[in-house]
Amino acid sequence: MRQAKLNRRDFLAGTSAVVAGSAMLATAGGILIGPNAAWAIAPQAVTTAEAATLVEMTRALYPHEKLDDAIYAKVVATLDEKAAKDPAMKTMLQAGVAELKAGKWDDLNADAREAALKTIDTTPFFQTVRGECVTGIYNNPDVWKIYGYEGASAELGGYLHRGFDEITWPDQA
């Protein structure tokens, strides 16, 4: 299989958007690249611009300064995988993103974004994204490492005799 060569100039010329307020790149080739180029997702159901908005939305829903956008991008990648298999979900995600964009999402500060999300918090779109955040963020072992959580302890006899009084991560959250 022949691979296309892409030099820096072609790559930069081929980028379709730099997402406002962040350094994520949505390329013409359909890849969303993180600001430090340490992560990338290639959405199949939603566009890269829609995926970028969803990354920003997930961060606005569960803002953790210690978490890189890569954690939030994994949540969006899971949503995209589900949307690729379910046309109704794809339509819902696209309509939800369009509604955020209609409200000038890209121009809003953090407080205004929170207010905008509160106006849609009963919608299936919001609840779907929020639900995926809960499992995608807090069931992620990479997040556990950042906050010092060792994971489940039942198979190790529980926490009582394993330094329960020495944990520090609740104070760091």
Question: Would you write up a description of this structure?
Answer:
This protein has 173 residues and is of the alpha+beta class. It has 8 helices and 4 strands, in the order H-E-E-E-E-H-H-H-H-H-H-H. The chain has helices at residues 8-14, 48-61, 69-85, 87-102, 110-119, 124-138, 141-147, 169-172, and strands at 15-18, 25-27, 32-33, 40-41. The protein has a 4-stranded antiparallel β-sheet. A hairpin with a 6-residue loop joins strand 1 and strand 2. The model is unreliable at 1-22 (pLDDT under 50).
Q: What's this, in brief?
A:
52% of the residues lie in helices and 6% in strands.
For the biggest sheet, the summary is: 4 strands, antiparallel
Number of DSSP E strands: 4
Cα shape: elongated
What is the chain-wise order of helices and strands?
HEEEEHHHHHHH
How many DSSP helices? 8
Low-confidence runs of at least 5 consecutive residues? 1-22
Helix content: 40-55%
Mean pLDDT: 82
Gap between N and C termini = 48 Å
- What is the structural class? alpha+beta
Oligomer: single chain
Strand order of the largest sheet: 1-2-3-4
Q: Please report which band the strand proportion falls in: under 5%, 5-15%, 15-25%, 25-35%, 35-45% or over 45%.
A: 5-15%
Instruction: Report Rg.
Output: 19 Å
